[in-house]
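Show me any protein, keeping tokens residue-aligned.
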Amino acid sequence: MSAVTVAGIDCGTNSIRLMIANVDENGLHELKPRDTRVVHLGEKVDQTHCFTHAALQRTFAAAEEFADILEHYQVEALRFVATSASRDALNRDEFEAGIQRILSVTPEVISGEEEAQLSFLGAVSVLKARQQSASILQVPYLVVDLGGGSTELVMGGDGVASPADQVQASYSMDIGSVRMTERHLLSDPATKQQIQEAVSDIDSSIDRAFQQVPVRNVKTVIGVSGTITTMSALAVRLKTYDREAVDGAQISMAQVHEANRKLLAMNSKERSDCKVIHPGRVGVIPGGAIVWDRLLERLQEQAQGMADAYIASEHGLLDGVVLDLGRRCLDRRS
């Protein structure tokens, strides 16, 4: 069986991640645990539309660590994608030049549409193996990728008129954990008024998204990204974060709504003491929690046959980037 070793880097608003994997006709097979660094690249981009010098330096330091790791693998191809904050930053050329210098690859600032499609590919690529054990895995799927600067909604086919793993509709909302926290949640903890202002902002984006994505047909929601997996770990009351316990877990709506309520009542010190929350997410996860909580509420109102639970997944954009890159490399060989 033909296989290729490739690597992908996903640079988001809050974190940057590296995956190295073999890709063959059966999918991708990670060669090592994926590496994540929380660099806050999108810090203040919502207000200034520019990367700060400190944010760039943190990101370049992480890229240098990734370069050291990549030296130990014979990688045929590397793809570096950047998302929401990079789409908005006026000094993007400084970021691109730094990454090119360190990794010898040009960062691709992908559109919200491509981000959505790759997230969907990554999330659904592992679902067939779980079909026997996940009782709520009914099509159509809606994949939600909640990042620091944007949130992607991607809906697949119904398995009859169109394949379940084929994107039918998608929409990228300019709301995420960093944007909502910096824009609205200025107290510690946030006040009720600040939370309500955030909800109103989020609802406006959801209204536009639901005009483009027919969510009334959704049966299964799959949540990817660090915010959602962290909220899922809190919802099932893990003491420390456990990737294996979270990946593929079915989380009831009641569980996550309660976890959200408790999180928003915490101040930053209390969040720091919570071992489930990565230190790099302590400052921004309240904004993401509100986005996730409100989106689930709105989906429950609109999606007639949706299960009263969602699937948490550790597989999303980065998996999609690597899988797509590997498949293209294999196609060029044939």
The domain at 4-111 is CATH 3.30.420.40 (Nucleotidyltransferase; domain 5). Residues 192-212 form the longest helix (21 residues). The radius of gyration is 19 Å. The chain has a mean pLDDT of 93.
